[in-house]
Specification:
With about 290 residues, this protein is mainly α. It is built from eleven helices and four strands. Among the domains are: about 120 residues, Cytochrome c-like domain (Cytochrome Bc1 Complex, Chain D, domain 2), CATH 1.10.760; about 70 residues, Cytochrome c-like domain (Cytochrome Bc1 Complex, Chain D, domain 2, Orthogonal Bundle), CATH 1.10.760. Helix 2 packs across helix 11, helix 6 crosses helix 11 and helix 7 packs across helix 10. The N and C termini lie far apart (about 95 Å).
Length: about 290
């Protein structure tokens, strides 16, 4: 029998102490509430059951599989199959419809944009940005300025076959290395760079020498008015939208060493319905033509 007659009682609370004291502070004998203890015991029982039902216990050769046979990979696969089943009817319509028919059908176009937005986030956003805003070396898809054309069929061609991707039907053509290959002198490169800057940022400086160099060497691709040519992927130089930068130093670097980015051929990686959905979504970002 425990003798409680000699228990130390805390004067402030009237509660017995456990006898433990540290630095003048005494521990009150106030056991945890029974409801709290019952919950604790229940979680212990739950944990033991969880160990046996699900993969949980590490072993030298792997881990226990669990009596239910559940795996995270299996759960994800089941979710994807369920999603595919939900989408099946609309995806079937995408497969049967042309891009123009999709764009003309409000319900189908809305589905295509939503489906395309999801696919864009997985496949295209790492280069073009989450909202298609682009970055240095990767085109801005929201500005209605297209290297290879912004019509639905043109965008589909670019997505499907890529640019400089090795695909036989992909876009080809590079920006020549005018300096490295000895086509233009350093002075000529400086002159034409100054002229190109003036196309989007008016200046009072004399850029006639650069204009002459441009006409002789750059106009065949960029056009006499420098508004570009989507047939060869030559950008419009009269706007403030630049793929690599529009300051004189960057333009000189481009002229000296050339440029030639890479766009994957997604046709070998994505199914036709996804390509169509991406096309409609990307077209919606920048207006297109």
């Amino acid at each position: 029998m425990v003798d409680n007659t000699h228990q130390d009682i805390d004067a402030a609370t009237g509660t017995a102490t456990t006898g433990h004291e540290w630095d003048g502070i005494k521990e009150l004998n106030t056991p945890l509430p029974k409801w709290w203890l019952y919950i604790l015991y229940a979680t212990m029982v739950w944990a033991v059951g969880y160990w046996f039902l699900y993969p949980a216990i590490p072993l030298p050769g792997g881990h226990t599989a669990g009596l239910l046979g559940w795996t995270s990979r299996g759960a994800v696969t089941a979710d994807l199959q369920d999603l595919q089943a939900q989408r099946a009817a609309m995806v079937g319509q995408l497969n049967k419809s042309t891009l123009q028919q999709i764009a003309a059908d409000p319900k189908l176009a809305e589905f295509a944009r939503a489906y395309g937005r999801s696919s864009f986030g997985v496949n295209c956003a790492p280069c073009h940005g989450s909202n298609g805003q682009g970055s240095v070396g990767y085109p801005n898809l929201t500005a209605d300025r297209w290297l290879w054309g912004g019509k639905l069929d043109q965008i589909s061609q670019t997505i499907t076959h890529g640019a400089r991707s090795g695909d036989a039907d992909g876009h080809e053509g590079n920006m020549p290395a005018f300096g490295k290959d000895g086509i233009l002198t350093k002075d000529q490169i400086g002159q034409v760079a100054a002229y190109v800057v003036s196309l989007s940022t008016p200046t009072t400086a004399d850029v006639s020498a650069g204009k002459k160099v441009f006409a002789e060497n750059c106009a065949p691709c960029h056009g006499d008015n420098a508004k570009g040519n989507s047939d060869v992927g030559a950008p419009n130089l009269t706007t403030k939208i630049w793929l690599y930068g529009g300051d004189k130093a960057t333009i000189q670097e481009t002229l000296t060493n050339g440029r030639g980015g890479h766009m994957p051929a997604w046709g070998s990686k994505l199914d036709p319905a996804t390509i169509k959905a991406l096309t409609v979504y990307v077209h919606s970002l920048g207006g297109g033509q």
